[in-house]
Automatic annotation (TrEMBL):
This is Dihydrodipicolinate synthase family protein. It comes from the Bacteria. GO terms for molecular function: N-acetylneuraminate lyase activity. Belongs to the DapA family. SUPFAM superfamilies: Aldolase. It comes from Sphingomonas ursincola. InterPro entries: Aldolase_TIM, DapA-like.
Amino acid sequence: MADKRSRVNWRGYLPAIVTPFSDDGALDPQRLGAYLEWLLAEGMHGLVIGGTTGEWTSLSPAERRDLFSLVGAQMKGRLPIIAGCTSFTPQDSIDLARHARDCGFDGILLTPPPYVRPSEEELFRFYKTVSDANVLPICVYNWPPGTGIDMPPELLARIAGLDGVVALKQSTGRLDLFVKTFFMLRETVRIFGFAMDEHGLTLLNGAGGDGTMGAGGVLGRDQPDFYNHLWAGNLDAARACGAKDRMILDQWYTPDLVGRFGSGPAVLKAAFAALGMPVGGVRAPLIDVDAHGRAQVEATLRQAGKL
């Protein structure tokens, strides 16, 4: 249990990436490979694969494994890679984690089981079962918009005490709960979820903290450079990078991180298309962003100096 934080080197900006599909909707290894190389060249500090942004909900079990196999073969050892292993049962998450381990992944990201809204005791036992399997280090993901549950800091502290849990992605919509969780658990696990705004910068600079997971890396180097500049002590440069990240969050998403003119994956895929990075469309039941939404996406990218 001692110093679990040191078991992993995760820090900085780790985008939750989209899953590239071909024009007929199949998993596209060529597009995926080009996208991964671009993310690496843009200086990402790690990658989260097959999460909400990666449309795990429309991937078959075989496709989730294929995705991990493709990413592991290309990126193992080049930067930290974390596998989205959210499932309805702990055994399904364990099975996915074992495949991710065999593909060279460094850890897993795990929300509560969606839809069923487990009780606090059920949630603790879910995470304990996965932790006890001792497959890969776990980043717990508190994701109220996707699960309907905003795990309270006291429950998160109990889960963080599990030996296999080394990190927390805290995506509560309440700043007070984020701050409380951070100060409760920063000595126990790595904490992700910091906004790239003045609140986040103040916390990171004054009290520590580990990083941010999200937004698909659509702004390229500006997103990891928020942290690079922060670590170098150049707060003004960090603010400039963070302002661009906040721009896309404010213009593309509601405060609850729901897309304003399409789902999160659809908005990001429209942005990558505008940037000339073909990643295909989204799968049903999601639908691609319409012409009005694409115009909004392009306007934001121009404002951010990306077009």
